[in-house]
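Field notebook, page 269. I keep forgetting to write these up properly, so this time I am using the form the group agreed on. The chain and the ligand, NAP, are recorded exactly as supplied. Prediction of the bound pose follows.
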Amino acid sequence: MANNSSRVILITGASSGIGWATALRAGRTGAKLALVARRQEKLDELADKLRSEFRTDCLVIPTDLRRPEQAEECVLAAHRHFGRLDVLVNNAGVLIEEPFDMAAPGVVRDLVETNFWAVYHTTRTAVPLMEKQGEGHIINIGSVAGRRGIPYMALYCASKFALTGFTESLRLELEHKNIFLTLISPGGVETPMPYSVDRSKIPLGNATHRKGIPPEEVADAILRAVDKKPAEVFLPAYSKLAAVLTNTLPSLTDVIVRKVRLGRFFRWT
Ligand SMILES: NC(=O)c1ccc[n+]([C@@H]2O[C@H](COP(=O)([O-])OP(=O)(O)OC[C@H]3O[C@@H](n4cnc5c(N)ncnc54)[C@H](OP(=O)(O)O)[C@@H]3O)[C@@H](O)[C@H]2O)c1
């Protein structure tokens, strides 16, 4: 893998939240950055900041990742510009949080196209380039919701479970090509995403919204993963319990999820 200062990192969803914070952390290491999202003005603002604070060599690639040809092209454009691609961070995502049958079909399609299909297309484009250069690393931003089902997040969970399975499988499928896969699975993170949904539609009982960890914590974990290439990172670390408990004690986990999410311990209370 190229060293810090010549490493090329492509970050999707760089215009906000975790992607924005990751770009700033990566810029500090001297990496070269390809910044991908739909909102060009936000990407330009980030690129200006990176250039002025860290003299980062960065490329803005406005992209709608729901479009397969655009998802493929952003990877090719980064590779054409920098001559290599060391790390692909598939971070862009959207959230649906409401009763599953209230979400409009178009919104559901957007979610699956952004949270899963886009990752498939960027990955499929990046793998042959990484194979040719002899190494590469793909970091997918999943979620604890990709390890444990949560009421009123069925559609989001489905997209993140798909990403979990895709990442776990490819990790073993691509290791002989010297391409590493890492899944980052955060719980709540304090970004615009959790505030983008209207919770008044959800019968949450007396459960209240909990403040998440800062996006910089996730960015730090992503940068550590670039160096150490772990299989999966849970943030905060104790949220791994959700994955362990759901596999070992599913009924108890139902009770906990019901309480945290719906404000009641049992089905009938
Ligand atoms: N926040 C949390 O609590 C939390 C918890 C666990 C996992 N995650 C995951 O972390 C990742 C980042 O989320 P965040 O919290 O940082 O959310 P965010 O602040 O809302 O950022 C989402 C990013 O995705 C981009 N994006 C959305 N649709 C896109 C599209 N069609 N094409 C290109 N880019 C698109 C957005 O850019 P544009 O709008 O400019 O296109 C934005 O940069 C997501 O995968 C999310 O599922 C978040």
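OBSERVATIONS:
- The chain has eight helices and seven strands.
- The longest helix spans residues 105-133.
FOLLOW-UP: compare against the apo run.
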